[in-house]
Amino acid sequence: MRIDELSVKIFADGADVAGMVALARQPWVKGFTTNPTLMAKAGVTDYHAFASDVLAAIPDRPISFEVFSDEFDEMERQARAIAAWGEHVFVKIPVTNTRGESSAELVRRLSHEGIKLNVTAVMSLRQVEEVVAAVRGGARSCISVFAGRIADTGRDPVPHMTAALELLAVEPKAELVWASPRELLNIFQADAIGCHIITVTSDILQKLALVGRDLDAFSLDTVKMFHTDAQRVRFSP
């Protein structure tokens, strides 16, 4: 299958403005997500300036920006400010704060006031069910289930994400995001189950050139790589 035949929407995950702008030229990149960890790695020091640059360069696709506070009152204030940055902005709200307290009531209030949300760091199906109940009847929303982290625990994310999709069926304005993928295969797994969106970092996106590659040719290239590296370091038994 070619990338342009996929039904799942690919959202690029990152915080490097130049890289985001370059990816925006790709028609198969349908949106963007950011988070505090990615922004820290990219050296972002002025959140509003970063967001302004991104939105000026990419004005026509959904982009998620996250609140930073751990207190719900301040989360709400930040969410309203972020939502005002642009019509395609989704505000990322963590499913709980660091004390494990649910953000469902805040999510319900903001969603029903028309603020588009991306509820993030969701993992359990109980959390999915709680978030779906909170956004039901509200604005457009995304529910980001961290399938990659679920896989890191030894669980198969495919049936888990399939079950999450079933829970979302009651709210057509909510989309399931396959978040934190670990490999290119996850894009095709997400597509196969009918997941709405998958967030993909640039290192995985770079592997798209390998899709459909002849395996014998790929094997030969791998042998050549090993040989070249052995010659470079002059290994000898």
Task: Give the helix/strand layout.
Layout: E1 9-13, H1 17-24, E2 29-33, H2 36-41, H3 47-57, E3 63-66, H4 72-83, E4 89-94, H5 104-111, E5 117-122, H6 125-135, E6 141-145, H7 147-152, H8 157-168, E7 174-178, H9 185-193, E8 197-201, H10 202-205, H11 215-233
Parallel strand pairs: 1-2, 1-8, 2-3, 3-4, 4-5, 5-6, 6-7, 7-8
Helix pairs in contact: 5-6, 6-8
Textual characterization of the structure:
The protein has 237 residues and is of the alpha/beta class. The protein has one domain (3-211): TIM Barrel (Alpha-Beta Barrel). 45% of the residues lie in helices and 17% in strands. The chain contains eleven helices and eight strands. The protein has helices at residues 17-24, 36-41, 47-57, 72-83, 104-111, 125-135, 147-152, 157-168, 185-193, 202-205, 215-233; strands at 9-13, 29-33, 63-66, 89-94, 117-122, 141-145, 174-178, 197-201. An eight-stranded parallel beta barrel has the order 1-2-3-4-5-6-7-8, surrounded by six helices. Helix 1 (17-24) links the parallel strand 1 and strand 2 (29-33). Helix 5 packs parallel to helix 6 (125-135) and helix 6 (125-135) runs parallel beside helix 8 (157-168). The longest helix is centred in the last third of the chain and has 19 residues, at 215-233. It is globular and about 65 Å long.
